Amino acid sequence: MESFEALWQRLAGPIRAAVARVRPPDAALDADDLLQEVRIRLWEVYRGDNNSGLSPSYYLRVVNSAIIDSLRRHRSRPAGRDDDAEALDSLPDDAPGPEGRLAAEMQAQRLKTAIDDLPPAYGTAVALYLQGYNVAEIAGLLQCNPDRAHNLTYRAIRELKKRMSECDE
Questions:
Q1: What is the pLDDT of residues 138-162, one digit of tens each?
Q2: Are 11 and 60 in contact (CB under 8 A)?
Q3: Which residues contact 150 (CB under 8 A, 6 or more apart)?
Q4: CB 74 within 8 A of CB 53
Q5: What's the predicted TM-score (pTM) here?
């Protein structure tokens, strides 16, 4: 698996081009700040890449998502507002309390445990699917034909649903 710096150097040109293409010239959002946000998002994905085989196209999708999120955050921020006021205003009125957050964390842990308990091929296929890979990309990463990748993913999702519904009972 290549180092993060090597990955960054390989993708830096397309990333800078994407930032230059989408960032309005009159925007107060500095290109360097946007690049830093993209780099942080890439690092988070890279650090969590246990497959050591994420394709460059997946990383570029992460880059596009980071750019879009950053631009949306910046455009929605009224002039003269500090980040603390924005954070308070961005909380929905129906935000879950501590019990709701705990329930969501427990649900996420049950999902992770259920995925870990699946047969290895199923677990890998469904984990890739939940990360946003399509069947063709899963086939490439698993080095199998697309029909096998589709069947593995379908069966894994079906088994995962079954196990999660058993937990709810």
A1: 888 889 998 998 998 899 889 888 8
A2: yes
A3: 135
A4: no
A5: 0.43
